[in-house]
Amino acid sequence: MITALDFTIVYVALPEIGRELGFSSADLQWVVSAYAVPFGGFLLLGGRLSDLLGRRRMFVLGMLLYGVASLLGGLAGAAGLLVGARALQGVGGAVLMPATLSLVVTMFEEGRARNRAMTVWAVCGASGMSVGGLAGWGADGDVRVGGGVLRERAAGCGRGRGRVLGARA
After folding, report:
1. Rg for the chain (alpha carbons), in Å?
2. Long-range contacts (CB closer than 8 Å, 24 or more residues apart) made by 26-32
3. Which of 35, 151, 44 is closest to 91 using CA atoms?
4. How far apart are the C-alpha atoms of 90 and 145, rounded to whole Å?
5. Residues 6+ apart with CB under 8 A from 162
6. Where is average pLDDT lowest: 38-47, 72-81, 132-141?
7. pTM of the full predicted structure?
8. Which residues of 38-76 are buried (b: 16+ CB within 10 A; e: fewer)?
9. Cα(148)–Cα(95) distance, rounded to whole angstroms?
10. 3-state secondary structure (DSSP) of residue 7
11. Beta carbons of 142 and 168 less than 8 angstroms apart
12. CB under 8 Å, gap of 24 or more: what pairs does 85-88 form?
């Protein structure tokens, strides 16, 4: 769900991201592409790493990469930093997605239990695409890159007001 959510939630936030970080309208596409290209490009490698190094290990590594990249993206004060964080998020997602799928497949016995688990996994992925658009729309454009990252404004540091991303201050 988290990897799918990030595809759609950023589309709603693009106008505000562009204003806050000074992206030109032509360069704003990099916010989306910087996530999508590494995500798609490294999916096969992520799956192979899960096979070679272990599913749980790659799941944890993917979550760490994704979480750190989300934090960096939420705190980014410059366009280049945001694009770099989004690329790292894409790599984290490419490690996370195949590890998650392989864990689901191997943790449940073939038959009814695995079919249910795969259904839940698929529904979570599909709902992430919908929830991203709804969360962004409901937040009235105050969503920035990832949800749940606290952005505090220290005295003299940073831009904007402190807020939890995805929530109205």
Report:
1. 17
2. 27/79, 30/79, 30/83, 31/82, 31/83, 31/86, 31/145
3. 35
4. 12
5. 150, 151, 152, 153, 169
6. 132-141
7. 0.73
8. bbeebbeebbebbeeeebeebbebbbebbbebbbbbbbb
9. 21
10. helix
11. yes
12. 85/145, 86/10, 86/31, 86/34, 86/35, 86/145, 87/34, 87/35, 87/37, 87/38, 88/38
Q: How far is Cα 30 from Cα 13, in angstroms, rounded to an integer?
A: 13
Locus of tokens 């939890």: 164
Q: What are 26's two structure tokens?
A: 């032509």
Beta bridge partners of 151: 163
Residue 94, by phi and psi: left (phi above 0), alpha (psi -120 to 50) or beta? alpha
pLDDT tens column, 87-138 = 999 999 999 999 998 998 888 889 998 889 888 888 877 776 666 656 553 3
Pull the structure tokens for residue 144: 């920035």
d(CA 142, CA 12): 9
Task: Count other C-beta atoms under 10 Å from residue 79's C-beta.
Answer: 19
Q: What are the structure tokens assigned to 101, written together?
A: 């799928």
Tokens of 157: 């540091």
